[in-house]
Design a protein that fits this description.
This protein has 335 residues and is α+β, with helices and mostly antiparallel strands. The chain contains twelve helices and nine strands. A five-stranded antiparallel β-sheet has the order 1-2-3-5-4, with helices on both faces.
Length: 335
């Protein structure tokens, strides 16, 4: 019945389609509460249909954000029709090859795709504040100290607590480390740009060799380094230190070429954003895997924990957390 309903709505909004040719099949994608379908309109033409939860605020702004990205030349799927009453969006089908699907290719091949992704995200990061203000009503809450602290607690509760079974008193002790609060305050004090918020390999579609951004409904004011960290420390794809360094250099050169002042604060901010991003990702994996039942997310926890351990191990006042993460088999981290 659900598929028939979606087909009826598609035929209603696209009356020129031959009803005998239209076919629909679900697409399994991530841990989102949205449902995705590929609609075959003819042997050579397809659409993507998105069914979103009307109760979730950020889902309602997807279309406005997509139009904003298109207006500023940022590659993303075109919107064909939005049925706001039913929470349905028909969008351009950019294909099935995301950046993640190329993870086993040579670095020579992958580097070009990563650089294309950085080209697109830099277009977003460089938009002036006056342009960003016009989107404010369509965006979630900006990154501030409270949101950074929420990401930290998300990690402690859903990763260390739910997945590793660290007891509550130990979690509270670690969460209360003064450095964590100071990091949140420090990052919140820095100038913001518009950021994707989930800029990782599975949210970048490669079409004709060019990167396209998808799943951008979480876009908000934040730090460009957060997006960069999301891509470079992506738990889905392991980059070598050399590969990561090359991509950082590529992004920094784009900053220089566009008149952005390059200073020594960038590297430290990137590391702190990487810490935040790994905490957010680990919290999400624990929640989606153990609460929502999407168990495949749990497979990425070990790699993300290693990344987080490497990051916090370089922050002097976070050594207690690094020590705990160093031994997943300890009594404190027993599953």
């Amino acid at each position: 019945m659900r598929t028939e309903f979606l087909l009826r709505r598609t035929r209603m909004h696209f009356p020129l389609l031959d009803v005998t040719d239209v076919r629909i099949r679900p697409i399994e994608k991530g841990g989102s509460d949205r449902k995705f379908y590929r609609i075959r309109c003819s042997p050579t033409q397809t659409l993507i249909l998105v069914k979103y939860n009307l109760e979730r605020e950020e889902n309602r702004h997807y279309v406005e954000i997509a139009k904003f990205l298109e207006a500023h030349g940022i590659r993303s799927p075109k919107i064909y029709f939005h049925d706001a009453a039913e929470g349905l969006i028909w969008i351009e089908d950019l294909g099935e090859r995301d950046l993640y699907s190329y993870r086993r290719e040579s670095w020579l091949v992958r580097r070009a795709f990563y650089e294309s992704a950085l080209d697109e995200i830099f277009k977003l990061h460089r938009l002036p504040e006056s342009v960003c203000v016009e989107m404010k009503e369509h965006l979630p809450a900006e990154f501030n100290a409270a949101l950074y602290r929420w990401e930290q607690r998300y990690f402690f509760n859903n990763c260390l607590g739910r997945f590793f079974g660290v007891n509550e008193s130990k979690r509270k002790e670690l969460a209360a480390l003064p450095s964590l609060r100071e990091i949140a305050k420090r990052l919140a004090s820095l100038p913001r740009a518009l950021v994707h918020r989930d800029f990782q390999s599975q949210n970048i579609i490669i079409q004709n060799g060019q990167a396209n951004l998808i799943d951008f409904q979480g876009m908000r004011p934040g730090l460009a380094e957060y997006d960069l960290a999301s891509l470079l420390f992506d738990p889905y794809v392991e980059l070598s230190a050399t590969e990561r360094s090359e991509l950082i250099g590529y992004y920094r050169q784009k900053q220089t070429d566009n008149g952005r002042r390059v200073n020594g604060q960038f590297d430290e901010t990137l590391q702190l954003c990487a810490m935040q991003r790994m905490m957010q990702a680990l919290g999400a994996y624990g929640f989606l895997g153990l609460v929502r039942g999407h168990e495949h997310f749990l497979h990425y926890i070990p790699r993300a924990v290693r990344s987080l351990r490497g990051i916090v191990g370089k922050i002097e006042d976070l050594k207690p957390l690094a020590s705990l993460l160093a031994d997943p088999g300890s009594s404190d981290l027993s599953v």
